[in-house]
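Notebook p. 47: complex prediction with nicotinamide-adenine-dinucleotide.
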Amino acid sequence: MNGLMNGKRGLIMGVANNHSIAWGISKALAAQGAKLAFTYQGEALGKRVKPLAAEVDSDFLLPCDVEDIASVDAVIAAIKERWGKLDFVVHAIGFSDKNELKGLYADTTRENFSRTMVISCFSFTEIAKRAAELMSEGGTMLTLTYGGSTRVMPNYNVMGVAKAALEASVRYLAADYGTRGIRVNAISAGPIRTLAGAGISDARAMLSWQQKNSPLRRTVTIDDVGNSALYLLSDLSRGVTGEIHYVDSGYNITSMPTLEALRT
Ligand code: NAD
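Predicted complex, structure tokens below:
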């Protein structure tokens, strides 16, 4: 199928480099004709994002740190001025102090709990509220989550709690905006080697566990996530909202290690 996203304009938030999940999503959308705008967090990342944006024919780059709500407002204002509307938004943003992505969840500090929640969870609600104002003809929103939201994963700690709240936000936002023809979904991706992923202690062990124990016996790639995102952001999924869609080689359905893994 070609041209699924022809005529659609969307905002991608969360490309840091060519390993970012948001970059996998961007490639899949651009290949189907979408026009993209990108945000970047700080000038150092901006230098990396600019050539990537050029690869998908975009010169629309905007600085944004979601801790500074004025910068989110400026992004929305710039899109309104240049495009007048928005068809979709991708929120692929997460952060927590890496010193707390190890050890006990119980040791999470109040300061890092709040910061993690604001950046990794509440920013999606703040962005959704603003983006919806540019979606008078309907639209789609997508965020990224991880299975550590519903099951305990070693070291994921406060991020798991933030992702649980993010998934609940997806359902509440889907209910808020459904009557306006705006759909809100999340992809729950399996572990992938990225900048954010590397912040979690023993990330390598998690990747190897997933590879050995998921039904597909492999980890997922940013292109796997990109293709599923294309489905959720395009009209192919027009009857789907409030969904947490797993792209994890089926790991979430398992209840114990495979027998091969137990024997090795
Ligand atoms: P990444 O490091 O490439 O992307 C994370 C992005 O978050 C970066 O672009 C960073 O600039 C941005 N960010 C962090 N704090 C920000 C702030 N204050 N303001 C604006 N942007 C900010 O890593 P990724 O793995 O591609 O992460 C994207 C999303 O996918 C995250 O929500 C992450 O939790 C989620 N996720 C990742 C995995 C994985 O294994 N890598 C699995 C499931 C879900």
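Notes: The chain has one domain: 9-248. The two ends are 43 Å apart (CA to CA).
Next step: compare against the earlier run before touching the bench.
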